[in-house]
Design brief:
Layout: H1 2-6, E1 13-14, H2 17-23, E2 32-35, E3 39-45, E4 51-57, H3 64-78, E5 87-101, E6 104-118, H4 138-157, E7 163-164, E8 173-175, E9 181-183, E10 190-191, E11 198-199, H5 212-217, E12 219-220, H6 222-238, H7 249-268, H8 275-292, H9 303-310, H10 320-326, H11 346-352, E13 375-377, H12 387-407, E14 412-414, E15 422-425, E16 430-432, E17 438-440, H13 471-488, E18 493-494, E19 498-499, H14 500-508, H15 527-541, H16 548-558
Parallel strand pairs: 1-5
Antiparallel strand pairs: 2-3, 3-4, 4-6, 5-6, 7-10, 8-9, 11-12, 13-15, 14-17, 15-16, 18-19
Helix pairs in contact: 4-6, 4-9, 6-8, 7-8, 12-13, 12-16, 13-15, 15-16
Length: about 550
Amino acid sequence: MESILQDQSSRPHSIPLQHLKEITNNFSEDRILGHGGIGVVYKGVLHNGEMIAVKKIVSSLMPGPQKQFENEVYHLMIVRNPNIVRCVGYCYEIKNACLEYNGKYIFAEMAERLLCLEYLPKGSLDKYLSDESSGLEWSTRYKIIMGICNGLRHLHEQNDKPIVHLDLKPANIMLDDSMEPKIIDFGLSRLLDKEQTICTSSRDGTFGYMAPEFLHSGTITRKSDIFSLGVIIFEIITGRRDYVDVTPNSSYEFIEDTLKKWRNTLERAPGYRSLEIECQQIKRCIQVALICMNFERAERPRIMKIISMLQGLESIDFDVTNVETSSRLFGSTDFGMPKNLTKLSCQELQIAHRDFSNIVGSVVCKGTIKDGPEFFPLDGKAAQLSWDRRMKIATGIAKGLRYLHSELQPPSTISKLNSKSVYVTEDFTPKLVDFECWKTMFSKHSKTLGHSNNESSFPGHLDFLKDKPSEVQCNSFAFGVILLEIISGRLPYCKDNGYLVHWAIKYLQQPKEISKLVDPELTNVRPDHLAVICGVAAGDALWPAKNVVKQNEQFELSC
């Protein structure tokens, strides 16, 4: 691998799993660099002391991780640019494991999927976002903006077929030692023909960065990334992404106000001599950001034009109507965004969340708004609750899923439903969260909705997973796992005991054995409740072609 790293022209190679275990100290926790949506990133140390990032995709029976892994490998094979992360190699090994199913042992395939990427020590851009009063100096911010644009130009214009990233955001922009940006995470990316437009039922991505036409109708073009780019440029300049105006003229006022703040900051910097040049750069960047966030995708410029405008080589036709339409994306209801939301000041949030020190998740802080309830995540907390409280949480989750699947129009699912996406109030009422993973389903796509394109999307699938899963079935399976977590007090996976589902199957299939699923610390367990939960969990965890809505209704009535 050392020779591959030194040869910048080499393509990604297949790397044995055993070698990756050796350089990551068997994927030890002290080597973890970060967590992503579908995997964990470890620091690998080679024999010559060089470092590499090893992204280990979490094993799952769900189709998403497999598809995203394939996307990353395929697309990183064909891109080569200083502003796109370099893929050194990959590992895709399948082993057969002997598991008990229906009273007999069968062999099931289990896949190990890993990516080896260049090591970028400065971390992701989201850690460096701030307003003009602190953080990175302007020259560094401008360098990052131009670098991201250069990487996007390579994706959109310099390949035989354009690659649309579809998840551009500061967390997916890494920085090297010299603060050069590198675009990462191609799991959601799509390959297009030159002027192709795709319509999809999927809504995978990150709210706030998703183009309105994609969020509203599933339309994908290169302009989808341009919208995301505009939001990122806006954040780099201001430290925030929530641009809201009241009148068309306020866009000009906003630009002038931002320029004034930056001018004051630059004037205070010792030995600063290029004030007017920097202020012109800042003004161009703000204008370009707002044009990129145009509500109408046809009005967003191509990446080549954006680069020319940022460099001052092409005039900027800045129209206040561009800004007026783009501002509707924030706080409006045009695209299914919530209305009548309470607006809170930063000071109120700091007080409520104790200066954001009470962290309960990767980016979530626990807090109590005045006269409001306190929330905490269910993940890992079920073992601390009584049986009645566990039943209240289970019933509430079922009601929430019933609303999403059958009462909400259009119906929706949560693509990454798990116990981390369930929060519980102080009176133990569950709330489904993680809106970044919500997906809207449209009846006109019913024939292809949520179905996998090939059988290999389920590495490690057992015989009972032959049918291609719909999004509702995926939620059904996830709900079954959450029910098992609630009654057993166990995590869905741990290194010593393996997968919770694999452990529970043998008891779910024997009605007389279901009591062994219950947390041994629990008392006052109602056998009728347990029987209903195990009946639903057995159906969901074994993934039959059933309707989760009907099962949830039965569950609610029984409990």
